[in-house]
Amino acid sequence: MLMLGCSESKEPEPLPAAPVQDSAPPPPARRAQVVIPAEVRGQWKAVQIAVLDRETGQETLHTVDVGAEFHLEGTRIGVRVQTFLPDFIMHGLTMTSSSNQPNNPGVQIRIREGDEELFAGWLFSLYPDAHAYYHPRYGFTLVDFIPATPADENPEK
Question: Which end of the chain is less crowded, N or C, counting CB atoms within 10 A of the terminal residue's CB?
Fold first, then answer.
């Protein structure tokens, strides 16, 4: 006997659901932030950054106030000192100082050549090679830091 058409019929398996597209934009990426503790704010006046010219072997020392900028002579390169943290620590995306003691000094800088930003990051005096920026001609190193004095707060006195 021939049994055609006597097979069990199964329900067709459902297709996987198409992904739902959310029309809302994705949340903004979290960015690192610098938090200057009250005990550190205003306590440091300036830093000293050594710049090594690899072509000539000459090293120049630049003393620059926190928040100020210096330029390399004969170039379009400028270095802005943004923030100084005497005891740098990082918790997640927050960079701060665990004390006002220079246990792990770090300076946040921006290096520009004309309108082009070459580097935005940190220099550390104890760890000069950590996260160091490599420029084909110049090397940058944090070598010292200068505390603020009462006269810095009241320049009229």
Answer: N
In this structure, are strands 94-97 and 33-34 parallel, antiparallel, or unpaired?
Answer: parallel
According to DSSP, the β-strands at 33-34 and 69-71 are unpaired
CA nearest to 79, candidates 104, 36, 48? 48
Please provide the distance, in angstroms rounded to a whole number, between the alpha carbons at the two ends of the chain. Answer: 117
The CA distance from 57 to 54, in Å, is: 5
Q: At residue 15, what are phi and psi to the nearest 5 degrees?
A: -75, 150
In the chain, the amino acid numbered 145 is F
Q: Structure pTM? A: 0.76
**Which amino acid is present at 51?**
V
Strand 138-147 relative to strand 44-53: parallel, antiparallel, unpaired? antiparallel
- Tokens 């006002």, located at residue: 100
Model confidence pLDDT, tens digit, residues 23-34:
556 666 678 899
